[in-house]
Structures are given as C-alpha cells and as structure tokens.
Amino acid sequence: MLSAGAILILAVIQGATELFPVSSLGHAVVVPALFHLGFTYSDKDLVPILTLLHLGTAGALLVLYRDEWWRIIRGFIRAAIRGTIETSDERLAMMLVVGTIPTGIVGFFFVNQLTKLFGDPRAASAFLIVNAAILAGAEVFRRRDERRRHLEEPGTAHGLPANPEAALTARHAEDDPGYLGVERLTIRTALIVGACQIAALFPGISRSGVTMAAGLVAGLRHEEAARFAFLLATPIILSAALLEVPNLSGSSSTLAIGAGAAVLAGVVSYLSARFLLRYLRFGRLDPFAYYCAALGAAGLVFIR
Amino acid sequence: MRPNVSIAIALVVLAVAFAGFAIFYWTTKTSLFASDYGIHSKHAILFTVLAVLSLIAANFARRSGAARAR
C-alpha cells in the first residue's frame, strides 16, 4: 500500500507537472524509478490516487478559467442550437470541441495499450527527450519567424527593440505583437493543434507542451498558446478522470488521503498555471526543453 | 441537392449509427473494442457524446447549405 508521504509527493509532482510542458505522466513513471520512491506507475494502488489527482488538476483549471468556461459553455449551446457561429465565445467553444474530438477518441481506445507498451521508465525517459526536442523545435521556428518579421519591417516595428539578435535569445517581445490571439485561429488549425495532443498519450510527451508548440507554430502568442493548451486540456483531463470515478476502490483511509492529495494537486496546479501564464508573457519554452532533456538523459543513464 | 445538405444527411446517419452503438454498449455484454467481456458504460457514454456532436455538426452543415442556397 502507498504511504501517505508517497501520495503527497505524487500530488505535488502531478500538480506541478500536469500544466507545465514537461509531461506529468512521464514524471509519474520516471521520478519514482529514478529516486527509488518505493512504488511504480503500474501499481494498482496508484489508479484511484491518480484519478483523484487529475480531478484536482481539472478543478484548478476550471477555477482559473471559471468566467471563460461559463461563456464557452453558453456559447457552445447557443451555436449548437442556431447552427452558426456569431461571437468569439461561440467560435472558441467550437474550436475546443473540434480540437478535443481526435484526442478523445484515440485516447479512449488506445491509452491503456500505449501506457502498457511505453510506460516503462526508460521508454518514458526517451520520450522526455523527444518532448524537449518538440519544445526547442517550436522555439527555433518562432525565433526564425520573429527575425524574419523584424527584418521585413525595420526599426522598432512589432515592438521589437533595435537589436533583434539580443532580444530574441531568451525573451520575446511584450505580448508577441504581430502574433494571434486564440480567437483568431481557424477551426482547421484548432483541429490540428488539438490533434497534436494525441502525441501526449506516450508517457514523456507533454500534452500542454505539444499543444503550446503547435500553437506557436500556428502563430499564436506565447501566452495565448498556453491559454489554448489549458482550455484544450480541461475537458480531456476532466472527462478521463470522471470516467474512472465509478471504478474508484480502495480503503476509506486511502481515499481520504487521496482526496486531500487531490486538493493539494489542485492548489499546486493553479499556482503553476498562474506562474506559467505570467512567465510566458516574456519567456520562452527553452528552459522546459532543457529540463526535459536533462531528466530524460538522467533516466536513460541511471535507471536499469 | 446542395453539397452541404448531403453532408448534413451523412452526419445524421452517422449520429444514428453512434446512437446505435451507444444503446448496444448500454444494454449488451460484449468485448467489442474493449479489453474485457461485459457491459461497457464508458463506451456507451463516448458514443452518446459522438452522436450528439454529429447532430450538432449536421445542424451546422444544414445551415451552411441553406445560406449558400440563398
């Protein structure tokens, strides 16, 4: 049986990593093996705990975007009944629905098989390195695009300072002027960005990471890419967790500790999401890429 | 027939098929697309959601076809 300490460690890991682009599933597989925490991802005791932790994370996202979700749900109902899209809320609602369907279907049928096939710590470590490459690749693409735009419009166009080489290394221009907000994506692009979440079924590939990377490539501002990633993640995380709730089993003490851990995971998720949104006003995804590469390399070297 | 009306009809047919699957999974023990033999309510919920979404998509296609016809 999992100790209370192990469950609380899992809660913090889950809360901190679910929304950061570093793969919570990869961490749940790699970290216990790397630090000999005394349990593995495949432990049956872990299933109800992980379900509760995911509920905590989904709850945090709902709280974070509570006003927006209310508008999205109303927009969805209005647009569905009318059969046309007229407002930005309706458009966002339909983009989220379209972006969620592919991952929802593939995940529903294949998540268990994929987790069994690739849920081994060394495989997850390798996928963490792939995740690092995805994040770094998206930023390389974005830097090139920013440089190209800057060269096309000399001076301080797009709000970029006179020396683009210096500015484009670690930080991007304030609010990424010239790039899009979520509401200006096309439905087709939303479908492609949403479908990228399928990659996150492999332990080690981050759902928010691939969605943010795809959003950046699609021309979203950094902060907007994160917002879209969080909005897209909410129905998937929430429905996956809710569908597992009827299967919750275990002693009442385990479930009570799990419920407490869910609250902890929710609080950590909320704080990490707020931090990430603030960080991405100026920051890039590179530090997360370096971190994933380092953790993946450590997993490959030290886990036998 | 306008192209979007054809799509709307196809989506309604799809919705009926999904609804059929949903009823099947609610009422019948099976191992179809599932790991074990039994009633699979999660599958039923998924197909119910897909049926509703297909109907919504059909509504969009119908309106779009009507707008083109005007």
Question: What does the model show?
Answer:
The complex is a heterodimer of chains A (304) and B (70). Chain A is mostly helical and 304 residues long. The mean pLDDT of chain A is 87. Chain A has helices spanning 4-19, 24-34, 46-64, 66-82, 88-118, 121-152, 164-170, 187-195, 207-217, 222-244, 252-279, 286-302. Chain A has one domain (4-302). In chain B, α1 packs antiparallel against α2 (41-69). Chain B is an all-alpha fold and 70 residues long. Chain B contains two helices and no strands. The two termini of chain B are 14 Å apart. Chains A and B meet through α4 and α5 of A and α2 of B.
Backbone structural class of chain B: mainly alpha
Number of discrete helical segments of chain B: 2
N-end to C-end Cα span of chain B: 14 Å
What integer value in Å does the Rg of chain A equal? Answer: 20 Å
Beta content of chain B comes to under 5%
Shape of chain A: globular
The radius of gyration over CA of chain B amounts to 15 Å
**Shape type of chain B:** rod-shaped
**Per DSSP, what share of the residues of chain A sits in E-state strands of 2 or more residues?**
under 5%
The poorly predicted ranges of chain A are none
Q: Helical percent range of chain A?
A: over 70%
- The low-pLDDT segments of chain B are none
Distance between the termini of chain A: 24 Å
Mean model confidence by pLDDT of chain A: 87
- Total strands of chain B: the figure is 0
Task: Note the topology.
The complex is a heterodimer of chains A (304) and B (70).
Chain A: H1 4-19, H2 24-34, H3 46-64, H4 66-82, H5 88-118, H6 121-152, H7 164-170, H8 187-195, H9 207-217, H10 222-244, H11 252-279, H12 286-302
Helix pairs in contact in A: 1-2, 1-3, 1-11, 2-6, 2-12, 3-10, 3-11, 4-5, 5-8, 5-10, 6-7, 6-9, 6-12, 9-10, 10-11
Chain B: H1 3-27, H2 41-69
Helix pairs in contact in B: 1-2
